[in-house]
Amino acid sequence: MSTPIDPSTTSTSAPTGLDRALLEWLGFDLDDVAEWWAGRESWPSPMRVLVDDLALRGVDTVDEMSEQDRHRLRVADRVSEVQEGYRRRFVTGMRRPGPGGRSVARHHDERRL
């Protein structure tokens, strides 16, 4: 049996497709992020890039954020939640296909009804 990949310890030399798209949507140049993050083990999450950018601009509280920054933060937070949910369910192997291709947890939930 193989050990599932732990995404928190996996080093990557480039952002994932979703991270790349989100970084670009948030207004960051990927070359600038690569230069800023050079020498570290893996790419930062888009949320980390956004929070560090806000800190560099001296924004310490939500009250100090522009409406655009608040919107960017909400979107990055939601994408992070979705990615973490995906990692928990599929990458780490917590949800394996059950009967008929459904996840085991879903199959057991349906049986309880």
Please describe what this structure looks like.
With 113 residues, this protein is an all-alpha fold. 54% of the residues lie in helices and 0% in strands. It contains 5 helices and no strands. The protein has one domain. It is globular, with a radius of gyration of 18 Å. The protein has helices at 17-25, 30-36, 46-56, 67-91, 104-112. Helix 3 (46-56) runs antiparallel to helix 4 (67-91).
> Radius of gyration in whole Å, from Cα?
18 Å
Q: Give the mean pLDDT.
A: 74
Tell me the overall shape: globular
Major sheet attributes? none
Order of helices and strands: HHHHH
Helices, by number, come to 5
Whole-number total of structural domains: 1
Structural class: mainly alpha
Region (Disordered): 92-113
Give the arrangement of secondary structure elements:
Blueprint: H1 17-25, H2 30-36, H3 46-56, H4 67-91, H5 104-112
Helix pairs in contact: 3-4
Region (Disordered): 92-113
Brief summary of the model shown:
The chain has helices at about 15-25, 30-35, 45-55, 65-90, 105-110.
What attributes characterize this protein structure?
5 helices, 54% helix, mainly alpha, 0% strand, single chain, 113 residues, disordered C terminus
